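Regression report. Comparing outputs from two consecutive submissions.

Submission 1:
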Amino acid sequence: MKTILKYIILFAVIFISSDLFAQNIHFIQNGVIEYEKRSNMYALIKKKINKDNESYLNEAFEQYKKNNPQFKVAKSTLNFTRDKSLYKWPTVEETVNNNWLASDVLADLKNTIATNFDLQNSVTQKSVYEDTYLVKDSVRKINWKITDETREIAGYECRRANAVIMDSVYVVAYYSNQIAVSGGPESFTGLPGMILGLALPHENVTWFATKVSEVTVPEKDLTAPTKGKPTDNKGLKAILLGAMKDWGEYAHPIFKAFSL
């Protein structure tokens, strides 16, 4: 009887301690997240070399590796509240690499995205070469598979989730439920917490949070972009496919990048 009573008391202490710990967890619902985007330029350039261009691209690639770092790095921010977010890039351009091999659609992608979590829609300002489009549509539906793997990002414990979008783009995300907003960088949302780490392993690009600041975000810092030719995702797809119909094998990676 004493043994049974001892275990009952032990379980009660554990339950009460766990409950008190859960009550003391602070959940963030508004703030600013700074992300660092890293594009593996060596891998991206290597993918562009084929039998038709290897005679000059191989030599150009070797020269590029001697004079340029492996990763192109860019900074972005996500302003968020419980029901809205605005993902954007700094107004001041980073140092430009004038080497023509450093130009890559995915590495240079700089979408501005306003998301309304309550209405489940978004407004994306997307630059496609010389044109700018304003894409208004519902948020991307992603079939996430949550795993048991965890890692720390910007001081937060995050859980891993995997998904496949656009039939072939493999996505790895790390989210923290301590930030109680279902948002993330670019168009990636839909997890039970904020995405602080994002990787497209086969596309050789990552976005990882470097700093999370819990601050009050004024409504003006969540304002959706307004400049651009209005369209939706279906309309943009038709525009892209029409423009690239004669591009052959070069079209597919560019289409994927502009569709993110």
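Submission 2:
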Amino acid sequence: MNDFQLTAIGHIQSPYKQKFAIPRQPRLVPQAKAKLVFAADFNREEFVRGLDEFSHIWLLFRFHETADKGYSAMVRPPRLGGNERKGVFATRATFRPNAIGMSAVKLEGIEYKNGQLCLLLAGIDLLDGTPILDIKPYLPYSDAMVDATAGFADTRPETQMTVEFSSSVLEFIKHQTDYPDLHDFINNVLKQDPRPAYKKQKEGEQSYGMTLYDFNIRWQVNGEHNYVTSIEKN
């Protein structure tokens, strides 16, 4: 009774190619567009008939890159600066007994092209390739509890980070046509300050890189200012 298997119904094609820089909750970066690509056994329009009547959906997924690392009873939430421990069930940390996560994301459409069924999503916070275990419609009357409290995570995370782009980066973004929201996407990802908590305590200029979509992006952080220095296509 305690042992069972779950079958992935599909996977995510996400702009986030590495864990670094992924927002810590869904919808914090609305420009993060993704596709849910259905697996062969579920690649039929009957499975999603009526889903387009809903603006948002719940995704249940597997933390596939950390699932083999086991779980911890106590974790250090980034929201608390990594300095305080909480029980794993009081957080949304990845190191869970069953490595299952959930995200409420915007459903922008259903696509059936060349025999492949996909959901078009926005505000995603999932790594590219994440296996999806289930989809459920978001019900505002039931799921949005206006009197709920959320302990140490009771408010939306905010930073004072500013973002500036070099002239060469602005020129590159201007002339690429595949991602019209690329400037705002990068801007909002960096405003979330994706650095590890211990890095935020260090003074002086720091250099970082990340991959979004098929772009390598490099930037420098000095205090609460991000300066995007370069962008190159992979």
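Expected: both submissions complete independently.
Actual: both completed, but the second showed a warning that disappeared on reload.
Relevant detail on submission 2: The chain has a mean pLDDT of 93.
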